[in-house]
Amino acid sequence: MRKTQNREDIINIFKKNPGKFFSAKEIYEKLQDLDLATVYRNLSLFKNEGLIKEHKINTEKESFYEFSSNNSHHHVVCEACSEVIHVDLPKSVLKNIKGIGHFKNGSISVTISGVCDK
Ligand SMILES: [Zn+2]
Ligand SMILES: [Zn+2]
Questions:
Q1: CATH class, 74-114 region
Q2: With bands split at pLDDT 50, 70 and 90, how would you rate the model's confidence at 84?
Q3: Is pLDDT at 1 greater than 50 in this prediction?
Q4: What does pTM read for this prediction?
Q5: In 13-63, at which residue ranges do the beta strands (DSSP E only) sit?
Q6: CA 1 / ligand 2 centre spacing (Å)
Q7: Ligand nearest, relative to CA of residue 85
Q8: CB-facing half-sphere around the CA of 44: CA atoms within 13 A
Q9: Of 9, 20, 42, 86, which has the highest C-beta tally within 10 A?
């Protein structure tokens, strides 16, 4: 019973914050009664089920997770403060990347890094 409740609690964080993303630690901080290992375990389950997507900004920073949605989108990441924004790229842009032709359209995810003006 408790197991299902954990699952629901984590999924609800994503549902209540559409378009937002969280690291495992942030989820852990919101759900005080779960331990971090449980959060990680559930997140990897959800990822395997396709409910959420995991994004790695770079190897030093924590992954963040977001709810899978039908519209595939891409990310721009600030190297200084780790701010992440979600952006759309026109399909024609992706198609014109040389050699990308045999990748399925929805499966391509682009992460652009830069430094923001903050
Ligand atoms: Zn920044
Ligand atoms: Zn996103």
A1: alpha beta
A2: confident
A3: no
A4: 0.70
A5: 21-22, 52-55
A6: 32
A7: 2
A8: 5
A9: 42
pLDDT digits (tens, 9 = 90+) for 21-42: 899 999 999 998 889 999 999 9
Ligand 2 centroid, distance to 74 Cα (angstroms): 6
Task: Delimit the domains of the chain by residue range.
Answer: 2-67, 74-114
Name the CATH topology of 2-67: Arc Repressor Mutant, subunit A (1.10.10)
Alpha-carbon distances, residue 37 vs 34, 55, 66 (angstroms): 8, 19, 18
Q: Ligand nearest 19 Cα, by number?
A: 2
Ligand 2 geometric centre to CA of 41 (Å): 21
CA of 66 to the centre of ligand 2 (A): 6
